[in-house]
Amino acid sequence: xxxxxxxxxxxxxxxxxxxxxxxxxxxxxxxxxxxxxxxxxxxxxxxxxxxxxxxxxxxxxxxxxxxxxxxxxxxxxxxxxxxxxxxxxxxxxxxxxxxxxxxxxxxxxxxxxxxxxxxxxxxxxxxxxxxxxxxxxxxxxxxxxxxxxxxxxxxxxxxxxxxxxxxxxxxxxxxxxxxxxxxxxxxxxxxxxxxxxxxxxxxxxxxxxxxxxxxxxxxxxxxxxxxxxxxxxxxxxxxxxxxxxxxxxxxxxxxxxxxxxxxxxxxxxxxxxxxxxxxxxxxxxxxxxxxxxxxxxxxxxxxxxxxxxxxxxxxxxxxxxxxxxxxxxxxxxxxxxxxxxxxxxxxxxxxxxxxxxxxxxxxxxxxxxxxxxxxxxxxxxxxxxxxxxxxxxxxxxxxxxxxxxxxxxxxxxxxxxxxxxxxxxxxxxxxxxxxxxxxxxxxxxxxxxxxxxxxxxxxxxxxxxxxxxxxxxxxxxxxxxxxxxxxxxxxxxxxxxxxxxxxxxxxxxxxxxxxxxxxxxxxxxxxxxxxxxxxxxxxxxxxxxxxxxxxxxxxxxxxxxxxxxxxxxxxxxxxx
Amino acid sequence: xxxxxxxxxxxxxxxxxxxxxxxxxxxxxxxxxxxxxxxxxxxxxxxxxxxxxxxxxxxxxxxxxxxxxxxxxxxxxxxxxxxxxxxxxxxxxxxxxxxxxxxxxxxxxxxxxxxxxxx
Lengths: 576, 119
Description:
The complex is a heterodimer of chains A (576) and B (119). With 576 residues, chain A is an alpha+beta fold. Chain A has a domain at 420-576: Histidine kinase-like ATPase, C-terminal domain (Heat Shock Protein 90, 2-Layer Sandwich). Chain A has 15 helices and 16 strands. In chain A, β1 (124-130) and β2 (136-140) form a beta hairpin. In chain A, α7 runs antiparallel to α9. The two termini of chain A are 35 Å apart. Chain B is α/β, with parallel strands linked by helices and 119 residues long. Chain B has a single domain (2-118), classed as Response regulator (Rossmann fold). Chain B has 5 helices and 5 strands. Chain B has helices spanning 10-22, 33-42, 59-69, 84-94, 106-118; strands at 2-6, 26-30, 47-51, 74-79, 99-101. Chain B has a 5-stranded parallel beta sheet, with helices on both faces. In chain B, β4, α4 and β5 (99-101) form a beta-alpha-beta unit. In chain B, α2 (33-42) packs parallel to α3 (59-69). The longest helix of chain B is centred in the N-terminal third of the chain and has 13 residues, at 10-22. In chain B, 38% of the residues are buried.
């Protein structure tokens, strides 16, 4: 059997045709659907709505937090770099002011100053003093740069103009990346000198490489022409050109969202470092920053899906259970009404049978007596007594009267039992009495009916009327299933000391497996349109239960059907 | 044996009386309770066969009145079996041995008559 058939509730295929105008009231499938939709609506819509709002708020908060953290990192790093350069610039200023030009032009004194700078600050490579003509007068460092004329170089013009100069990172004569800081010093006679120092970039790079960055994060410095001033994980080595446009100038730290060449979302923060050619850039992979949220999001979505599934299952279960209960209650009510109606019908039938029998019995008695008298006359007068034809005719009349009398007696018996409640029952007699009603039909249709009593069955107290209805319904049902020439075997046996079983086995058409579990349901019929109401077996089921018994059915298509009724012989059993 | 037959069906009761006569039983018949009460004064009947369901006075009521006049009179009841009440009353009054349902078998009736008169 298909799964849908197994889980389908009883009310699913129910159609109450007799409800007429009130049919929608008894459309249980519609009631179920309404209950499920309403309950699911009022529970799931707020839940999903709240989940969506919460999702959006949380995501926005996390995104804001990421931007804020990036901005904070950029600002702090910018301050560190500005401080690094400012510190060295101030040191040069201090040397200029603290040492007369003669001392600075003394290479020994200058060497001492370089040594102090290296020890005090680190990162200094050399130190030189350049006169107002741009000629390097004194130089201490690893190279031989004394006498070089810088007057035509751009940096010299800028330091003369602004008083201070910080260069881009460049390779210079030595093909090693470095940068230069130069400070102008005005001399008393109106002339000036420039103190120039070369800084190694390693210390500069260390400032960025020490930053706490997640796996794919990148912090680097570019100059205003887009050349890398420090190495970058993803944009190349020092002095390579970056692949993105130079961000617009802003006096404060800026953070925005962009995309890389592969289209992956990035969080980019930058800051222009004032009085330098440098732009600090911090680039982070948004996906990586959001990954904790993505994990939480999956858990939230999973939990939501689980909750929705559980809620739906509970709603489906509860709605099915409740509607089924309403359906069963309704069916019981209908069943009771029909049983009352059926009982009334049977009682009316009983009264009718009683009246008919009585009215027929009197004229039948007259025919009987008149024919009896004729026979008496024949018997007493020798002339007629020897005429076998006449005697035969009278005997035939008397025989017919006897047959009629037997019929009316049965009718009266039937009528009487409709009214009587509890009385001693002989099971075999009761069944044979019912069979006598169907004798003629069995004869015409050549149906063989056998009754076998396998054990000794004592008389027991029961409701004769109900028993008759039960047997009549089951036998009628068997006759309907039998083809002409079929067979009905009735077997009575004692299965327990206090229980007796009566099996009605026919070799008729059988009942389909799908219909088998529904045969006792009210209004279930396979004889629709052929006079079947679908009530016979359901009423039988109810009557058997009222007598404290049970009824079961086994059937196989094409082989036949067996209805087995088990009845208690003991009154106490019935009360149970 | 002298028998009084009481039944509102004249055709039945008259024919029955004739058949009993043919078997040597003296049988009179009447169709009403009044006639029965009169007739019982006139002849010393051994037995009365009463139909239970009769107009005006039922067979049961008639039995009581007849017993007042003739305490020794024996009774057999007949019925076309009207209702359950009739059946119960009839069998209680007469005992199932002396309660016969129409149409009758005359030999059974005579057997019952002999039996009741023996007791």
